[in-house]
Amino acid sequence: MTVLAMASRDAPKAAIEPPAASLRGVTRHYRFPGGAKTLHALGPIDLDLRQGEFFSVVGPSGCGKSTLLDVLAGLNPPSEGTASFEGKPIAGVPDGIGVVFQEDASFPWLTVEANVAFGLKRAGIGQAEIDRRVDYAVGFMGLRDFRQSYPAQLSGGMRQRVCIARTLVLQPRLILLDEPFGALDQQTRLIMGDELLRLWRETRATVLLITHSLDEAAMLADRVGVMSARPGLFIDIIETGWPSDRDSRIVADPRFGEMTGRIWEKLRTETMKHMQTQGAGPR
Amino acid sequence: MRYRALVTLAVVLACVLALELACALGWVARTVIIPPSEMVGSLRDILWSGEFNRAIALTLTNVMISVVISISAGFVLGVAIHASDFLRRAVEPYLASYYAVPTFIFYPVFIVLFGVNSAAIIAIAVLLSIVAMITATMNGLDRIPTVLLRTARIMRLSPVKTALLIQLPAAAPYFFTGARLSVAYSFIGVIASEFILSGDGLGYAIAYAYNNFENRQMYGLMLLIVIAVTLVNMTLDRLDRRLQSRLRR
Fold it and tell me: Quick check: helix, strand or coil at residue A207?
């Protein structure tokens, strides 16, 4: 049996458990300011995120990946169709969803510890429980020695860890990651990828990762959704079949090259389409 | 940093020594300027005699009232203008060219409205300092990274909590810069107004000494103002640097 044909760890569960989140016929149109013209950014999209799976989304720039995340996070309602989380329609940001953005979203006026505890304090959780969860998350993300540091004193990778820890302590059941390692160098990305996998295994949360990196998508995910150029549609969803205890060493496996090759094959045509619409086709 | 401070101090000391020498050698007439050592002596006499305590208290009170009004009203107006696109489009061109208008030309208007008293002086100082706070507030609110506001939405913060817990601290360095400018403009507004037309305060005392050829007293009072403003500015500058370094992204 080839790796591509291997079942994902959650495939049998998918048949039994209801999906963590669903999109049915979801589209998103944006109206240009001061005009009647609209931009069709996304869809129609149908997608079921399985309970506890790691799902990566790749696609050409501007294909609506972040719009998809906004719809799932409840930050933007779909223009048509329905989005639901744990069986309930998404209207506003639902309880149980955490988001890590590409940009540095740490609060520069708070220490690492206060940043991580921020959401818990707002949620009205008791101090003892806050301390316990912050202690765990800070340790888990390797920030124990920097508890009293301010984000300005940390590197970009460490600030992103602060943001992940801040999301982790809230114990979300669905974690949405919008190119969280986009600004980091390749080595740091691999290490952060390992930490993300560790976090995913530990929390058993469902994870949706948006990324530009095919390697990252292939290494981290149970399934990789490949999107078309705008308006973004899923042109393929590829099961990776990796074991759940995988880490970045998987990049040395010959099957990894096979996987990224398969994703790139799907993506290449769409990327060229995107470049041609931008007036920058291959010469 | 310490080296830079030492160089700055050395430059100031060199200028003071050069002036002292020029006065001692008679290169500069006493009717023009007195030696720095005499200025210090005059300042000591002013402080020990208590002759000008009332004037000092009055000036500082006027400055403080002006600072409080311009910072609080400037902040509220800045937030209001930032919140309304219509208001902003209407007001922004005036704010941009505001400091091209010599504010002191409105002094007669305030004399008519408030009389020859502290109220007119404070009004001029507020007029001079409030716009710095308005523009700094708008600038600070403009520069809050969108990702922080998106994070607030993800954490399901109410608009009030978003304003208090995210927007206010995120824009604090800009607000502080506005407040710092308001303090400086308030000092200028109050002392210059007292100088032009007033019967009390440090500005008036300097003008009085100047008109009566009391050079020693005039330079003593000027030194007092320079020292006071420098100390205030240094304190605010230190706080500003600390805030900026902590909040640098």
Answer: strand
